[in-house]
Design goal:
15 helices, Aspartate Aminotransferase, domain 2, Aspartate Aminotransferase, domain 1, about 450 residues, 4-stranded mixed sheet, globular, 2 domains
């Protein structure tokens, strides 16, 4: 193994997720610490975290407030059973989360990740229609280029083919077309064209009948699919169509929640309210795995009104670690930071700086599109013939070597910098990207 500065343990046993293990084990990239907006590598370098971990550490790394809250909780209650019993912090956190969202989104079901939040929302949607005496409403609709986690249901409704094809047949799902249009290339913020793509839901309704469709799930703005920003008015139109056809609308805000778009949530930025909303990642600032589904109270009430004895659970679903005390402590501290420090407002102030720095790369070779919204952005990279993944990979590795961590995925380079970055951090990262891309063949 090359000298990485970290040679005290074997790298053999760990199967690294979403990673070429063959290459990684030959030349590992090991992170041993973090400080503010930077990672510290095994060889002592400081690397600017231009993706907030994996879109999750937007408030900066190693926040002492969260560490102190977690430490206090571990000294008081390390774990309590998630079924049939509960602890006070879970109720407190649910109230805090509900208080951040508009009515009637005010019933909170805790999970441990974005993937689990999506699975939970899909199951709630299907169970809801059965409770309403309409079990035939079971078809789920996602969107091309959408990402909804790595679990079975989320992969099924997800629209990234490279995530789906290795596993063969998954759950049956339909998919709306992507809103990524060539005519919107290099748009700043919400692109002007494409609202009519929401009307493709009508085509799906014509093929299957609204009486068979349980729910539509979309990210308000996709992250992992390449920061695909919705056209102006698109989500409002999708909301109108779902209401007209009696279809539940699910927003996957795992990335857009807690300030990423320059407002508290994507629903605040795009002006549409779903029936179910999924969150995770920044809920605890990435410190302890946690997610949640926030439901319209009418959906929750439908379960309570089911014809069951009082001692029978209304929803036979949950996780051993749902509402874990330590995760709740981390989330409560993270929400304190979010509110006290005006994180969403800070993101809104930084967004124009980020937008200008990112779009200054226009005209650089290999860049065919630049997209941004709030503190999320992507560069579309012209693929090499027969090797569409090579250029983004090489760009990402060279950026890492130059002191900037970005995400390479598919044909894109993705950025989601910490919401507490300095303007100079954003400008320096884009300047390094310019230098790196200019050297890639």
């Amino acid at each position: 193994m090359p000298d990485s500065g970290y040679t005290s343990v074997s790298l053999d046993a760990f199967w690294v997720p979403y990673t070429s293990n063959r290459l990684f084990k030959r030349d590992p990239r090991i992170i041993v610490g973090a400080d503010g907006c930077h990672y510290i590598t095994a060889d002592g370098r400081r690397v600017y975290d231009a993706l907030s971990g994996l879109w999750c550490c937007g408030f900066g790394h190693n926040r002492p407030e969260i560490a102190a809250a977690v430490s206090r909780q571990l000294e008081t209650l390390d774990y309590s059973p998630a079924f049939q019993f509960a602890h006070p912090q879970a109720f407190e956190l649910a109230e805090r989360v509900a208080g951040l969202l508009p009515n009637p989104l005010d019933r909170v079901f805790f999970t441990n990740s974005g993937s689990e939040s999506v699975e939970t929302a899909l199951k709630i949607a299907k169970a809801y229609w059965r409770l309403r005496g309409r079990p035939e409403k079971s078809l789920l609709v996602g969107r091309v280029r959408g990402y909804h986690g790595a679990n079975f249901g989320g992969t099924s409704v997800g629209g990234i083919e490279t995530n789906r094809t290795p596993f063969g047949d998954l759950a049956v799902a339909e998919h709306l077309p992507t809103t990524l249009l060539p005519e919107n290339a290099f748009s700043r913020g919400l692109p002007p064209k494409g609202i009519e793509l929401a009307d493709e839901l009508e085509s799906i309704v014509e093929r299957h009948g609204a009486n068979r469709i349980a729910a539509v799930i979309v990210e308000p703005m996709s992250g992992s699919g390449g920061v695909v920003v919705p056209p102006a008015g698109y989500l409002k139109r999708l909301r109108e169509l779902c209401t007209a056809h009696d279809i539940l609308l699910i927003f996957d805000e795992v990335i857009t929640g807690f300030g990423r778009t320059g407002k508290p949530f994507g629903i605040d930025t795009f002006g549409a309210v779903p029936d179910l909303l999924c969150i995770a990642k920044a809920l605890t600032n990435g410190t302890v795995p946690m997610g949640a589904v926030i439901a319209d109270r009418a959906i929750y009430q439908a379960f309570l009104d089911s014809n069951l004895p009082d001692y029978v659970p209304e929803l036979t679903h949950g996780y051993t670690y749902s509402g874990h005390p330590v995760a709740c402590a981390a989330a409560l501290a993270a929400i304190d930071i979010f509110e006290r420090d005006g994180i969403a407002d800070r993101a809104a102030e930084l967004a124009p700086v980020f937008e200008d720095a990112l779009h200054a790369l226009r005209g650089t070779k290999h860049i065919t599109d630049i997209r941004n919204c709030g503190l999320a952005g992507a560069l579309q990279i012209d693929p090499l013939p027969d090797e569409p993944l090579r250029r983004p990979f090489e760009i990402g590795i060279k950026c890492w070597q130059r002191g900037v961590y970005v995400r390479w995925a598919g044909d894109t380079i993705q950025l989601g910098p910490p919401l507490v970055s300095r303007p100079a951090d954003l400008e320096d990262a884009c300047n390094i990207l310019l230098d790196v891309i200019s050297t890639v063949e």
